[in-house]
Hints:
Layout: E1 2-5, H1 8-14, E2 29-33, H2 40-52, E3 57-62, H3 67-73, E4 78-81, H4 85-94, E5 97-100, H5 108-121, E6 126-129, H6 132-139, H7 141-148, E7 153-156, H8 160-166, H9 176-186, E8 189-192, E9 198-200, E10 206-209, H10 222-236, H11 241-260, H12 268-286
Parallel strand pairs: 1-10, 2-3, 2-5, 3-4, 5-6, 6-7, 7-8
Antiparallel strand pairs: 8-9, 9-10
Amino acid sequence: xxxxxxTENRVVxxxxxxxxxxxxxxxxxLLLIGGNANMGGAIxxxxxxxLAGGAGLITIATDPVNVPAIHASLPELMVVDWSDLxxxxxxxxxxxxxxxxxxxxxxxxxxxxxxxxLYQEARTxxxxxxxxxxxxxxxxxxxxxxxxxxxxxxxxxxxPGEWARLYETTEPKSDPASVQAWCDRYQVYLVKKSxxxxxxxxxxxxxxxxxxxxxxxxxGGSGDTLAGMMAAFIGQSQDxxxxxxxxxxxxxxALADQIYQDHYVVRPSAxxxxxxxxxxxxSRKKGV
Length: 288
């Protein structure tokens, strides 16, 4: 299969123009689901990245123990208790893009309750499955495989360990043709994270290769930040799902490369903190 490099020019071409006549509802209504009592920081990092990435309205469904911290650090976001399924369902109904998984934990009971709501409310919406939700999906994949095929816009973002679990083997095939066949089987968009991340789109004869990234990014929270960025970018460009996915991956790594020039470790919160200015720089190259 042919590898197509993800370049800055592609991101500049994709970058949406923010109209003077727009308002918060013009830039995507997001629901981010995750953050158990022990890993609330993961969903906060996803929320911080989504906000910096330009999302218009963001709601987090999380363990109630995380609510005070989210209100204190991210006052722009709304929060619901994820154990209250009526609240979660209402948030799903009003959202346009859903992210599930950051810091969710590996409670199969919780996953099955949430996934049932996703099946009811999110089959026609872009749905990003990340982090612990990927592990739960893999554990339940034989029962849920038919449901996977019912989702119109399903995006999976596994790191190597999660990819092995999804592929149902300790030594998953990683050659592009086999990965593409897996994506075609389930009709999913796959962001296969590694030191040289790849993106596979269903029904394609080529895949996309990231050209940025560095070892300073090997720290907890990097994936949560990428997932939040991806949700934000999709929310602003729902008619160009591939462009939003590729642009989020590139911006995440390219900005991290800038930070790595002066820092031994690239903190995910530093990526989120610099994202808005980074995107403004790209928009100037587009002339907007």
